[in-house]
Amino acid sequence: MTDPATTPEPAMQQKIDTSVPHSARIWNYWLGGKDNYPVDEAAGDAYTAVFPGIVTIARSSRAFLRRNIAYLVSEAGIRQFLDIGTGLPTAENTHEVAQRLAPEARIVYVDNDPMVLAHARALLYSSKEGATAYIDADVTDPDRILAAAARTLDLSRPTALVLSNILGHVADYGRARSIVDRLMDALPSGSYLSVNDGSRGIDPVFEQAQDAYNDSGAIPYNLRTVDAITGFFDGLQLVEPGVVSVTQWRPEPGSPAQEIVAEHGGLARKP
């Protein structure tokens, strides 16, 4: 365990609301985790009753992130990661994948969910050669994130910014774009941006289920078109095969053909 980038006590004062379903806990439920409440399981079951494919999307998204991190460490030589909207710890977290390949890798996680904070110790476990830290902050406050991340990461060196299933929580597309731009502007040439989000225009049943979820009183998550997701990478150099369904992004050699799912993502380098 390494020293965290910030001491996240402020969020410890927040009460975990078990009366309202929360996306991070529902996602954890779909991934087979146990860090959720009956209200989350009920919401997750209601969603899968309409669209059972959400479990495939959740697990495919996680596998996409793992392949991204492996590429960044093994092929791009990245040793620093800023993972915003990390969610609840499950298998194959960013630091686990990165430090397995490069024990000296340094990872900063960012989230503002008090339940994620309660599990920060699991997230903060690090190889002795590297470092991990947790920041209690919201994606809509990039300046706070950057200031805190700089206590663990050397932001003058190439860094991978990971935004996995978080930008959909920023309803206004222009604001989401400006957040990405602000974060990437603070990183040097040779840094990378990894984004994946639920996509609109691929699966109408998925869209129906997501729209119903957003109307349920839970924290909404906005699906975006593939073109809109691609727009987050403007000015950057996309790694082949570009922005694709997460199942199609550099699948493991010899793996069976994967179905296209309504979750798109990509990885790009800052020139």
Automatic annotation (TrEMBL):
InterPro entries for this protein: SAM-dependent_MTases_sf, SAM_dep_MeTrfase_SAV2177_type
Gene3D superfamilies tied to this protein: Vaccinia Virus protein VP39
Single annotated GO MF: methyltransferase activity
Alphabetic keyword roster: Methyltransferase, Transferase
Keyword Lipid metabolism: no
Swiss-Prot/TrEMBL GO biological process terms: methylation
Pfam families: Methyltransf_19
Protein name stated in the entry: SAM-dependent methyltransferase
Organism: Streptomyces actinomycinicus
Highest classification ranks of the organism: Bacteria, Bacillati, Actinomycetota, Actinomycetes, Kitasatosporales
